[in-house]
Amino acid sequence: YLDRIHTFPKPIVGGMDGDISPPSFAANLAFDLRIATDKTNFILPELKYGLPPSPPLSFHLSHSLGPLKASELILTKSEITAQEALDWGLLTQVVAKENLKDSCINELRKLTAISADALIESRRMLKPSLKKMREYIDEGFEGIIRCLHGMRKPS
Fold first, then answer.
1. Which of 16, 19, 25, 55 is the most exposed place for a label (fewest CB within 10 A)?
2. Using one digit for the tens of pLDDT, what is the confidence trace for 123-146?
3. How many C-beta atoms lie closer than 10 Å to residue 6's C-beta?
4. How far is the CA of 13 from the CAs of 27, 78, 110, 120, in angstroms?
């Protein structure tokens, strides 16, 4: 799914509400703009289960925040609110639930006012390379497998 998001020729605005799991959080971080309701929470449960973070999520957090801030977020938080995500620079805006759809549509209207060629090239320059993303994610899943092999079975 990340390949399709990455290569999609049109702008993508993500709207989020409720509890957002790591795969959904990762997909939304790949979008051009991200809007969440004030009731949105991003759940990061992997570490408490003895697993490293979701590879797609950690990739996009590292790309969005830089490695130091991404490490701080992943290693110290098991959940963050929409306001915290906005403060970290992971969201475009936080809105009331009843305004989510209209806010997403308004942002899409703004983006579609940009020339198609300029928009495509801007998206291309701002996104990490697919090769780099795939390599990182493949290595991350290998790490998860190593963790799973290292877990002891209950007696």
1. 19
2. 888 887 888 888 988 898 898 888
3. 16
4. 11, 25, 11, 15
